[in-house]
Fold this protein.
Amino acid sequence: MQIYDKLEKQNKPSCVALGCFDGIHIGHQKIIGDMCRYASEHSLSASVFTFPASPASLLGGYPRRALMSQKDKMAVLEKLGVENCYSIDFFKIRNITAEEYVKKILTEQLNAKAVFCGYNYRFGKNAGGDCEYLKYLCGEPGIEVYVTSPVCYGEDSVSSSRIRSLIENGEIAAANRLLGKPFSLEQTIVEGLHNGRTVGVPTINQNIPSEFVTPKYGVYASFVCIDGKRYNSITNVGIRPTVNGSRKNVETHILGNYFGELYGKTVRTELLYFVREERKFNSLAELSKQIKRDIDFVNDRSIYRKYSY
């Protein structure tokens, strides 16, 4: 997949999916999948026009609370069949009107012959354009517009904001179903306090990026992905109050015996199921006993098999 951080005039006619696509949840996957199929059927370049960060969060002045890293976003788009991704700094085009957006970007730069978007898509200066106006503006240059209806799970539509709320409330299994994949963090292993090793439950430590949504503090059944292989694990997200911690981090105990050196290595931790809230124990020995009870709990309920994606 070719990734562009600025607009470049394309000679080959394209089919373009429009949206921020944070998390690339099952609703986003429907839009992008439909776009890729149309592109293949009509010999068009399968493209996505997106932003590294949500315009709403940038203009609203609150943290992005991202559901995935930019690196992961690009990897998933490529896996879905996208050939070209235009990930453009929002502030470089924020003052382009809806009319200019269609004329200068979709028509003149991307050479779009068809575009796909969600039902609530907005575009142009001050988000002045909606789906109906997009259809109107695309009429003259002859661009086909396909608007995807809401994808629902339960009684509500799937959205990035709904998924963030689920993650923050510890409903990680439900969030993963809406994402279509486990919520995960790929971060470098950092030096910990080595307390776990002394009580028989060695752990690896990872920081949570400041721009990421923070899962509810507590213990999760998880997978750790190391060199392409998944290992069952148990993860604590929080501040580690038993050792008077204050900075949030992700601390994971890999089940079974893993003897490889991991410090400085970048691994992925996937959260599967919320087990319990984080709490302070009277001693490390008491904490160790609880961790073993947590492991028995998830094994007794076949959590790793049930929530594997």
Remarks:
- Residues 2-156 form a domain with the Rossmann fold fold (CATH 3.40.50.620).
- The first strand starts at residue 2 and ends at 4.
- The two ends are 24 Å apart (CA to CA).
- The chain has a mean pLDDT of 91.
